[in-house]
Design goal:
The structure holds 2 protein chains of 2 kinds. By secondary structure, chain A is mostly helical. Chain A has 14 helices and 2 strands; from the N terminus they run αββααααααααααααα. Chain A folds into 2 domains: about 35 residues, no CATH class; about 250 residues, MetI-like (MetI-like fold), CATH 1.10.3720.10. In chain A, β1 and β2 form a beta hairpin. The radius of gyration of chain A is 24 Å and the shape is flat. The model of chain A has no long low-confidence stretch (mean pLDDT about 90). Chain B is of the alpha/beta class. Classes of the chains: A mainly alpha, B alpha/beta.
């Protein structure tokens, strides 16, 4: 037994070493330096305790805006995005005509690079020649020239749409799980007189608890690192309407060279991630049996 | 026994994998150090934004090819393509943070030098310039002073940037305008006249520091009087609340609201350039590097070049200032020497003449004159040099003068100003608050 434990430890050691070097030590460095005033490239750092955090939460309206945007996007992505993906998976599980084509084509936005997607959306929503405005103009509104990405009323929803409805990954995961549910359960329910809606609500969905929880975790945490689509479209503008915490971190570190403050944001993101995962685990009782 | 052998074999494989990864990670370092023992040429890493559709791309490519041929076996320059000015600036900053600056960096007017100097990553070029008086004579004292810090010369420019604005003579004539405006009041009258004639007056933008827009803004400040002109020749200002600046921002707002295309808000330089090149707008603020685009039939219609005129800014102003150029960040002397050789090649008289001939790039050297042949080939450039003599106010580029976070704030706040969601005073205050974060 002791010999076996030793072998397990030996085999795990390279992975642990790599994990420590590549992940753990940098994270500890980020958290540690978030308590320092560290600006510029001179390497001079001075300990300031919680000052960075107090400054951010109390006096920095841009930080508060970025934080609130991030939280809103986490909530939207966890609910609407997962909801859309699940709904489509439930529909596709009935294998309607062309279901394989729909399943594949719906994945396309998820496999295109974020930079290509951003360029596509910039052109689609271009106020002068974008297809959205062109269609609206063709419907009779000849002078319609909405600047979707930079108008105050539409900037946030337009950026949100870039990722909210493209739930191809969620669909694939949930569909795979639905396909693994034994047919006999559905047959038994039908024999008992259950309708399709009742089957979906009271049998299928409860059985998808674990995969749905996983999808919610994946969706929520994706918003903690969403960067490219915002950077390549609005860069967080107009003003700070579409700014999120990762982009603000990037600007603070690489434009302002304020590394201590940026690491404070990094630490905040890590804490938000841990809280999100713990909360979602609790809500969905992940890993626990259905009984 | 078999189980034990399998375990040992598996362990050995894992260790080989780990050591291989470690060895791969240090491979590049081994190639850099101890190059005197190598028979391979010294490789100079040079990331650049002068690639792709950038107007300087063909010239740089030619220069690199010729240099590599000339120094075959001794020095090899390797380009890393980074399309887009802002992407390039961001990349250099990331490399600086990681202490992995390439051998050669072209500041291109952006203030990358001071950040690199803070980290002690820049090679002092003074000894190289002192050892080669012929090379030193390529630069004016004003340029060398601008590229110096604490009495040491750290970078050298490759061109003189004389920037006015271009206008479409055909659209002007169609609208009944005989000549470019001389004052800002006349400028707005011209815009109104163009608009009434069904012509969109201006190409503007907001993305990536809003280059096209910010040139107008800077010129308005720079021609507003002595105070404004001093402001546009001062580095790292942290107060944008002066009357000159707010008045200029007010004018910019007026231009956005009345005299430009819908896609200016949120638009990049390319949108604005395309609007001018396709004849949709009548005026665009930009430098002589754009002249080649007027002849390029993949970008502009045939004969477009003949329709373009160039002018100095109303108030008799022009951008004519020193700019930050090439600096070397090699970690060892051999690479530094090789990088300096390449910089010498890029800035020597023949290459500057080639730039002038090839794309109308104005040489930094005061001894290089525009010959009759070149004048015939680049009439618009000659026109620019001639009109620049009428300028009484000259000023520097906002990108060189203002803090990077202020440039970013301008870009994200321009849309609000443009859509009348922010007053000029609020815009100026936000720039001031942002600038003060650097103190």
């Amino acid at each position: 037994m002791k010999n076996k434990a030793l072998w397990i430890a030996v085999f795990l050691l390279p992975t642990i070493i790599i994990f420590l070097i590549v992940f753990a030590i940098p994270v500890i460095t980020v958290v540690y330096t978030s308590f320092f005033k560290w600006k510029g490239f001179s390497g001079n750092m001075s300990f300031v305790g919680l000052n960075n955090y107090i400054e951010a939460f109390k006096n920095d309206s841009t930080f508060r805006k970025a934080l609130s945007n991030t939280v809103v996007w986490i909530l939207l992505q966890s609910t609407i995005h997962v909801g859309i993906g699940t709904l489509l998976a439930l529909i596709l599980s009935k294998k309607p005509r062309g279901w394989k084509f729909i399943r594949t084509s719906y994945m396309i936005p998820n496999i295109i690079s974020a930079s290509a997607l951003a360029m596509i959306f910039l052109n689609v929503f271009n106020p002068q020649f974008g297809i959205v405005n062109s269609v609206i103009q063709a419907l009779g509104f000849e002078n319609f020239a909405k600047n979707w990405y930079f108008d105050f009323s539409t900037a946030f929803p337009t950026v949100t749409i870039s990722w909210l409805v493209y739930a191809g990954l969620i669909t694939i995961l949930v569909l795979a799980e639905i396909m693994s549910i034994p047919e006999s359960i559905f047959e038994a329910a039908k024999i008992d007189g259950a309708s399709e809606m009742q089957i979906n609500l009271f049998i299928t969905l409860p059985m998808l608890r674990n995969i749905l929880g996983t999808c919610v975790i994946v969706s929520a945490t994706s918003m903690l690192k969403e960067f490219e689509l915002i950077y390549l479209t609005t860069k967080g503008g107009p003003v700070d309407l579409t700014l999120n915490l990762p982009l603000y971190l990037y600007k603070t570190a690489l434009i302002e060279n304020n590394f201590g403050y940026a690491n404070m944001m990094g630490t905040t993101l890590i804490i938000m991630g841990i809280i999100s995962i713990l909360l979602i685990n609790k809500i969905f009782r992940l890993g626990k049996s259905d009984v | 026994m078999n189980m034990k052998a399998t375990k040992y074999l598996a362990l050995l494989l894992i260790l080989i994998m780990v050591f291989t990864m470690t060895a791969c990670g240090s491979k590049n370092t081994d190639q850099v150090v101890g190059s005197s023992e190598q028979k391979e040429p010294i490789t100079i890493k040079y990331p650049t934004f002068q690639v792709g559709v950038n107007t300087s791309a063909p010239l740089l490519k030619q220069n690199v090819e010729e240099f590599n041929k000339l120094y075959e076996g001794k020095i090899k320059v390797e380009i890393e393509e980074i399309p887009g000015d802002q992407a390039y600036v961001d990349k250099i900053k990331v490399l600086l943070s990681a202490n992995e600056l390439p051998d050669l960096i072209y500041a291109g007017g952006y203030n990358l030098l001071d950040s690199a100097l803070e980290k002690g990553a820049v090679v002092d070029l003074t000894p190289y310039l002192e050892a080669d008086p012929e090379w030193r004579a390529m630069f004016t004292e004003r340029d060398l002073e601008f590229n110096s810090r604490d009495g040491k010369i750290y970078s050298v420019p490759e061109e003189r940037q004389l920037v006015g604005y271009f206008y479409n003579k055909e659209l002007f004539q169609k609208s009944g305008i005989n000549q470019p405006p001389k004052t800002w009041d006349e400028f707005f009258e011209v815009c109104e006249t163009l608009k009434n004639a069904g012509v969109t007056p201006l190409s503007m933008d907001t993305a990536d520091t809003g280059w096209l827009t910010s040139l107008w803004l800077s010129s308005m400040i720079g021609t507003s009087g002595q105070k404004g002109n001093e402001y546009m020749n001062t580095m790292n200002v942290d107060d944008y609340m002066s009357a000159e600046v707010i008045d200029s921002i007010n004018k910019i707002q007026k231009m956005f609201l009345n005299y430009t295309t819908p896609d200016a808000v949120g638009g990049k330089y390319e949108n604005g350039a395309n609007n001018f090149l396709s004849g949709k707008t009548a005026m665009i603020a930009n430098g002589p590097w754009m002249i080649e685009d007027f002849k390029d039939t993949t970008k502009a219609p045939e004969g477009f070049m003949e329709k373009v005129g160039v002018a100095i800014y109303p108030g008799q102003g022009i951008f004519d200032a020193s700019m930050l150029g090439y600096f070397v960040a090699s970690k060892d002397k051999e690479h530094a020497d090789a990088a300096v050789e390449f910089v010498k090649y890029l800035t020597k008289k023949e290459t500057q003449l080639k730039g002038l001939d090839f794309m109308g790039r104005i040489p930094t050297s005061p001894d290089i004159e525009i010959t009759a042949d070149i004048a015939q080939k680049h009439p618009l450039l000659v026109e620019l040099v001639n009109v620049s003599k009428d300028a009484i106010h000259s000023y520097n580029f906002y990108q060189s003068l203002w803090y990077p976070n202020v440039l970013d704030k301008m870009s994200t706040d321009y849309p609000a100003l443009a859509l009348d969601k922010m007053t000029p005073e609020e815009f100026a205050q936000r720039l001031t608050d942002t600038a003060k974060k650097n103190n």
